[in-house]
Design a protein that fits this description.
The protein is α+β, with helices and mostly antiparallel strands. It contains 9 helices and 16 strands. The chain has a 5-stranded antiparallel β-sheet with strand order 14-13-12-15-16. The radius of gyration is 20 Å and the shape is globular.
């Protein structure tokens, strides 16, 4: 036990949030799970209050989840967390690093600028350009800029009878359209895990149905996977520009070579446990303790 006070920003009651809170409590004797919907920032006093605790007085904050659903509003929650960081509270990961990942386009542009192989992608507000992209790709996934676990995504084929209607409906909800060529995933994709930039393990998400995606939300299952050195290096290069404390790089093995879909803002504890047999929460807690004590 120590006198360190390290809070957890997350969703109270959710498994991964409670797992890191448990791990930190076991090491410090202190437990505070912070729901950002109940946090108040007073800029005049410089206090960020949650249930009577000024988060600026803590030694550290582990950010496991900023919101149940990704949205532009979640970015404002991260901006609020920059206040305790500026006052010396250690952050895992830093809010500015997470900000660059929650918007799918920000993540994609960073990966493209780092010359990371990705699926062919078109971003546009022009529905005519969207129709041309679908015709060019043959089959494409239309993705919201703020979403997780494939929520809100639609798969269209250029021969889909009502493609025009579906594109118009998607555009109505998503003025900036993110259109990515559908890839042959052979029923699986990979989650490559890094802790403080160091490779930890890789798991695969294997489809258990005829769904076009392999997410656990769509019925996928975690299984172990052993990547070669070149694939690990690809994952390392993909996550490096973001400087996260803990992350998962989503990689697919296609007939033309490996591609990166995205880098996770928070990483997946359950995939590491079920796919790799590693307690990610314990590993993160140990890292947080080491950094705060340094």
């Amino acid at each position: 036990m120590t006198d360190l006070k390290i809070g957890v920003v997350g969703i109270p009651g959710k498994w991964s949030t409670e797992a890191i809170a448990d791990a930190l409590e076991a090491r410090t004797g202190f437990r505070l799970v912070i729901d950002m919907a109940r946090v108040t920032l007073d800029l005049a006093s410089g206090a960020l209050m949650f249930d009577g605790t000024d988060l600026c007085t803590l030694d550290g904050l582990a950010i496991k989840k900023i919101s149940e659903i990704y949205s532009p509003d979640a970015l404002d929650r991260l901006e609020m967390l920059r206040v305790p960081e500026a006052r010396g509270v250690r952050m895992f990961s830093r809010p500015e690093a997470i900000l660059r990942l929650m918007d799918r386009l920000a993540c994609t542009v960073t990966l493209a600028n780092a010359q990371i192989p990705m699926p062919p992608t078109i971003i546009t507000e022009d529905t005519d350009a969207a129709h041309r992209a679908l015709a060019q790709y043959g089959a494409a996934v239309f993705k919201p800029l703020f979403s997780t676990k494939a929520r809100g995504m639609i798969l269209l084929d250029r021969d889909t009878p009502d493609a025009a209607r579906q594109i118009a409906a998607f555009h109505a909800e998503n003025p900036v359209m993110y259109i990515q060529q559908k890839q042959d995933l052979s029923g699986q994709d990979l989650g490559m895990v890094f802790l403080n930039g160091d490779y930890l393990c890789t798991y695969s998400r294997v489809s258990q149905s005829d769904s076009w995606n392999t997410t656990i939300h769509s019925g996928g299952k975690y299984e172990p996977f052993e990547p070669d050195a070149a694939l690990i290096e690809l994952g390392r290069r993909a996550q490096a520009p973001f400087g996260l404390s803990f992350t998962t790089v989503d990689i697919a093995l296609t007939p033309t070579g490996p591609i990166v879909f995205e880098v996770s803002a928070f990483g997946g504890y359950r995939g590491v446990l079920e796919g790799c047999g590693i307690d990610a929460a314990a590993r993160v807690a140990d890292h947080v303790m080491q950094e705060v004590r340094a």
